[in-house]
Design a protein that fits this description.
454 residues, 4-stranded antiparallel β-sheet, alpha+beta, 6-stranded antiparallel barrel, single chain, 31% strand
């Protein structure tokens, strides 16, 4: 280390000794301001987030983008639309025969859409059980016929034996009568014996004559029983043969085959479509397996929602569009409204519609679009159906009010799938097409700020 030079006459400068640095003392002094600044920053961030949240809470819901529409006044045509499928009316239903047995198996089956003529086989069932019953009935018939022959032979033998006994008794009677004639020249004892023998011969002859008559009646009754058994066996043979013949189901008129849904032992949840019958399926007597629609009387089966039931009545005009024939328009009329079915979330009912102008191009199963005109209202105030809300017994819309939306009660006069006729609003009134509160929640959810530090 160098030192400053000494100047004579002046006191010598003191030697400077360096002092070691204290690094920790300086950092400790700096950390406190930094921590204080951080706490202040977090407090300011929390306050800012709270202010934003309060602003979003108290800000008018109109700040959210809410689609609107206006109440319109015009002549309004109310319609109900649905999809359906073509099928022939007055269908010939082909059912499993009532053979008196249990389940049957399908061994031959036409496909949906197959064209059949009168007398063509559509479905066949396994004849094994009925063939076994036929053989049993035939065996019983042969046995009973043999018993009849045996009864005839036995009756003839018994009758012949009885006649022989009667003839012998009558011969004995004649001998006894001849002996009695000699009583005048015979001793009294011998004469008395002849008289007794004559009485015995008469009694025996009379008894054998009655036995012959009774035996004939008994044999005739036994023969009648055997013949009744033969008749019963013949009926069983005829029924078994008839049952076998009924297992082959043929078409009674020309048309296209339409297989029916198989409801035998299948468990499906509501709304699921049952599969059609197919080869090898098991059926019970009386179940409809297929149908052959009458192509001169077309009809449409369509499912409508439960809410549309009050708008449909038989006789209403229907506009029909066949998907496979888009260039041709068809028309029809509502014929029948079915029962409401389905789970709570999909309640619906089937409607039958008769086609007024059939065409040769139509085929069973073709998809169609139908529009039913339910009513025509002149000079009506109406809104799109999504602009009207319901809660319990209350029906209301949202109208603008000082930058916000407020609910206003309205009277629901008529409703269709897409339009609602209302009362209590003026023409041109602006109303929201969606719930403003839900729109505000959507906007808040899509523009949330950063999460506060824990």
């Amino acid at each position: 280390m160098s030192t400053a030079p000494h100047v004579q006459g002046l006191p010598a400068p003191a030697t400077t000794v360096p002092v070691p640095a204290r690094p920790h003392a300086g950092r400790k002094g700096i950390r406190k301001p930094i921590l204080a600044a951080g706490v202040v920053g977090l407090a300011l961030a929390a306050a800012g987030w709270e202010a934003v949240h309060i602003y979003r809470t108290v800000a008018p819901r109109a700040a959210a983008t809410v689609p609107t529409t206006r109440v319109k006044r015009s002549d309004l045509t109310l319609t109900v639309a649905a999809r359906g499928a073509l099928r022939g009316g007055n269908s010939e239903m082909l059912t499993a025969p009532l053979t008196g047995g249990g389940e049957m198996h399908i061994t031959s089956l036409r496909k949906t859409g197959d064209l059949v003529k009168v007398g063509d086989t559509v479905v066949e069932f396994d004849p094994t059980d009925q063939e076994y019953k036929l053989k049993e009935a035939q065996a019983d018939l042969a046995e009973n016929k043999l018993k009849v022959e045996q009864a005839n032979a036995q009756s003839a033998a018994d009758t012949e034996e009885a006649r022989y006994a009667l003839e012998k008794a009558e011969s004995d009677l004649r001998v006894a009568q001849f002996d009695v004639r000699k009583n005048a020249i015979l001793p009294s004892i011998t004469a008395r014996q002849n008289d007794l023998a004559l009485e015995a011969a008469k009694a025996r002859s009379e008894q054998l004559r009655k036995d012959l008559e009774n035996r004939g009646a008994t044999n005739a009754a036994a023969l009648a029983v055997q013949k009744a058994a033969v008749a019963k066996a013949e009926i069983q043979v005829s029924m078994a043969q008839k049952n076998i013949d009924s297992l082959v189901v043929k078409a009674a008129h020309e048309g296209y085959v339409a297989l029916r849904p198989n409801q035998s032992g299948n468990f499906f949840f509501g709304g699921m479509k049952l599969p059609d019958f197919q080869l090898g399926d098991t059926v019970r007597g009386g179940m409809a397996v297929a149908e052959i629609p009458d192509l001169k009387n077309w009809e449409i089966a369509a499912n409508f929602g439960e809410l549309d039931r009050g708008h449909l009545t038989p006789g209403q005009t229907v506009a029909i569009e066949v998907v496979a024939i888009p260039d041709k328009k068809f028309s029809g009329k509502v014929a029948d409204l079915g029962s409401t079915i389905g789970p709570p979330w999909n309640r619906h009912f089937e409607t039958k519609i008769h086609l007024d102008n059939p065409s040769p191009e139509l085929r069973p199963g073709m998809s169609v679009r139908i529009v039913v005109t339910t009513d025509v209202l002149p000079n009506a105030l109406w809104l799109p159906s999504q602009a009207v809300f319901e809660s319990g017994s209350r029906t209301y819309v949202y109208v603008p009010n000082a930058g916000d939306f407020v609910a206003r009660d309205v009277k629901l006069l008529r409703r269709s799938e897409s339009q609602v006729v209302v009362g209590g609003l003026a023409e041109g009134q602006v109303v929201a097409l969606s719930d403003p509160e839900q729109e505000s929640k959507k906007k808040e959810g899509g523009a949330r700020g950063p999460a506060l530090p824990k």
